[in-house]
């Protein structure tokens, strides 16, 4: 489900596709989940950055 017009700041993070067998295997791995969580947390803490031109 995608939020439409949320009342609070929010982000949508897509970490892989379960329709892809290789990605589904990674997504079910606790170590991969931890790595994703660390990366997402780090990106949120850094905050938005301008896109390169």
TrEMBL record:
Keywords: Hydrolase. One of its GO terms (molecular function) is N-acetylmuramoyl-L-alanine amidase activity. Gene3D superfamilies: Zn-dependent exopeptidases. One of its GO terms (cellular component) is outer membrane-bounded periplasmic space. GO terms for biological process: peptidoglycan catabolic process. It catalyses: Hydrolyzes the link between N-acetylmuramoyl residues and L-amino acid residues in certain cell-wall glycopeptides. This is N-acetylmuramoyl-L-alanine amidase. It comes from Pseudomonas syringae pv. persicae.
